[in-house]
Design brief:
The protein is of the alpha+beta class and 589 residues long. 29% of the residues lie in helices and 24% in strands. The strands form five sheets. Strands 6-9-10-23-22-21-18-11 form an eight-stranded mixed β-sheet, with helices on both faces. It has a six-stranded antiparallel β-sheet with strand order 13-12-14-17-15-16. A five-stranded mixed barrel has the order 1-2-3-5-4.
Length: 589
């Protein structure tokens, strides 16, 4: 064997034992006639001590960073202990060693905090993965995976694989397509999710299915997106929404306790989509802190706080909506700080023309950027509506409803970051329910499915599908699970009758012929005794990143792509040669 022990397990109790270790050289430190080296493997670091005799051998066969080394010696107590590592009470006095493989000087330091930039680290990902940070992330990922599987197994779920080469079907994002050599001119698609397969498994009688599965979407990337990603995909038959929520709330509680040691005993809060949009400006609220958005003028019924209209202040009178937040303890903000917030909301990605502020001073007085339009009594009325307390700062945005709501949502989160309210070590999950079934695509001037076309409407809303003018009222039997302001999963009760599925396709502008061509296999299956069923899928990479206290999923994936969808280590995607193109009957334009 190359080793008797790993580099993370030796302790004082092993003193006097002869051991053989193998791993990578982290550092080498020469002190006159003796040398110390840190040897690293997946399990930890052990200090090696080379005495004068061995030091001469090192002079003849020098070792350097990232050399692969085998070393044999006796475990002894360290004179100068290191309490930062688990093996810090001992070292191994080396009697013999062997260089198993020399190494070039790494392009960046392989340490906790490296000097390598993102692109460089991704190019040499196999080196980056040696860093403790990445090792901890992948260990966390493994633990979450194991925890999820153990929980679902105990509840009788079966892990069933589904195909990767499937038919291209509209599910919201672009498909990755794969040309078929054996079927010239035709293409497979890589699955955006196993949606139709898990529904077919319910028809087949496998009433509790799950899969930790790769999914593929050809869409623009950001920190929490990759062209290929992993989701935990689950489906159950003979269930209603409440059954799904209870089952998977239990799953998340189990994972928090098992992986992070965080016990959540209370039920996850539930919030309707409408409440989330009005109080937080988005459908994935971060409820680690309050600072709810107050609607001072709503476009729904054009009602507003009377004081806003009384002065004829044009900014308020002309606005479609007026939104405000009370920022706790921020009345001491200086003019420079409030001006900086004004510039922040004027940025193109936020798109507002300005911001109005009212300081609720500790002595009960008010000072604002609109003093000449609103007296103190009127400002007090606004403060009361906002639930502001002495010492708070009220921030108001006014304008077009969609843009203003999005801007206030972003401002609330930005202030949460600045004030330290978004603590990565605090976990606040919730369910968002009662989503709209449809949303209007204004560019195409047609209704599209907010989730996907297999989502069932609320039973009491099915009749509304006969009236195009009432589509905006129809609620879906759908739900999302949100953690710390990030959507980590979503699902729905599915349509399981052919006539309702046909009605859904028709509502989305799909002809009978097109529906039959794309989804005839599914609708046909519904005619052979499909049970009521529903499920959920959650983003596995995203959950791991949140449990690891990070925003980006990239460092929780062993070999990720960059923001352009490229694997810079493999240099993929890449061109294929003319012979392959000819074999596939493809011509490049």
């Amino acid at each position: 064997m190359y080793r008797t022990n790993n580099c993370g397990e030796l302790r004082l109790a092993h003193a006097g034992k002869e051991v053989t270790l193998a791993g990578w050289v982290q550092t080498v430190r020469k002190f006159g006639s003796i040398t110390f080296a840190d040897l690293r493997d997946r399990y930890g670091i052990t200090q090696l001590y080379f005495n004068e005799e061995l030091n001469l051998q090192l002079d003849a066969n020098p070792i350097g960073r990232e050399f692969v080394l085998q070393a044999t010696g006796k475990v002894i107590e360290r004179t100068s202990k290191n309490n930062k590592i688990s093996t810090g009470d001992i070292e191994v006095e080396i009697t013999s060693f062997k260089i198993l493989n020399a190494a070039n000087v790494p392009p960046f330091t392989i340490e906790e905090n490296t000097d390598g930039g993102d692109e460089l680290r991704m190019k040499y990902r196999y080196l980056d993965l040696r860093r403790p940070t990445l090792k901890r992330n992948l260990e966390l990922r493994y633990k979450v995976n194991r925890s999820v599987r153990n929980y679902l197994d105990k509840l009788g779920f079966w892990d069933i694989e589904t195909p990767f080469l499937i038919k291209s079907t509209p599910e919201g994002a672009r498909d990755f397509v794969v040309p078929s050599r054996m079927n010239q001119g035709q293409f497979y698609a890589l699955p955006q999710s196993p949606q139709t397969f898990k529904q077919l498994l319910m028809v087949s009688g496998y009433d509790r299915y799950y899969q930790v599965v790769k999914c593929f979407r050809d869409e623009d990337l950001r920190a929490d997106r990759q062209p290929e990603f992993t989701q935990v995909d689950c489906e159950m038959a003979f269930v209603e929404q409440e059954d799904i929520l209870n089952t998977f709330e239990g799953l998340f509680k189990h994972v928090f306790k098992d992986v992070k040691g965080v016990e959540i005993t209370e039920a996850f809060p539930r919030m309707t989509f409408d409440d989330a949009m009005w109080h937080y400006g988005n459908d994935k609220p971060d409820i680690r802190f309050e600072m709810k958005i107050q609607n001072l003028k709503t476009p729904v019924n054009n009602t507003s706080l009377a004081v806003l209209e009384s002065t004829g202040f044009k900014v308020f009178v002309d606005a479609e909506t007026i939104l405000a937040i009370a920022v706790p303890g921020a009345s001491e903000y200086s003019r420079k700080q409030t001006d900086e917030l004004t510039e922040w909301v004027k940025r193109p990605q936020i798109g507002m023309t300005g911001i109005i502020n009212i300081k609720c001073n500790a002595d009960g007085t008010f000072k604002s950027s609109v003093d000449k339009f609103f007296n103190e009594e009127q400002q007090k009325e606004i403060a009361t509506k906002c639930g502001a307390q002495p010492g708070d700062l009220i921030l108001i945005l006014a304008g077009a409803e969609t843009r203003t709501r999005k801007a206030m949502s972003e401002l609330r989160l930005e202030l949460g970051n600045r004030l330290g309210f978004r603590d990565h070590d605090v976990y606040k999950p919730l369910w968002v329910i009662d989503f709209p079934l449809f949303e209007l695509d204004e560019e195409a001037n047609r209704w599209v499915a907010r989730h996907h076309p297999f989502t069932s409407p609320k039973p009491e809303h099915i009749e509304l599908m006969n009236d195009l003018s009432r589509y905006a009222e129809i609620k879906a039997n759908a739900y999302d699970i949100v953690l710390n302001g990030t959507e980590i999963g979503g699902g729905s009760i599915r349509i399981y009758q052919r006539d309702l599925q046909e009605k859904m396709f028709a509502a989305l502008g799909m002809s009978k012929e097109e529906a039959q061509e794309k989804f005839g296999f599914l609708m046909g299956a519904f005619e052979y005794g499909a049970p009521p069923h529903g499920g959920i899928a959650f983003g596995f990479d995203r959950l791991c990143a949140l449990l690891g206290g990070q925003e980006s999923i990239r460092d929780f994936i062993a070999f990720p792509k960059n923001n352009s969808g490229r694997d810079v280590m493999l240099d993929a995607p890449s061109a294929i040669d003319d012979a392959q193109l000819k074999e596939l009957s493809l011509k490049l334009g």
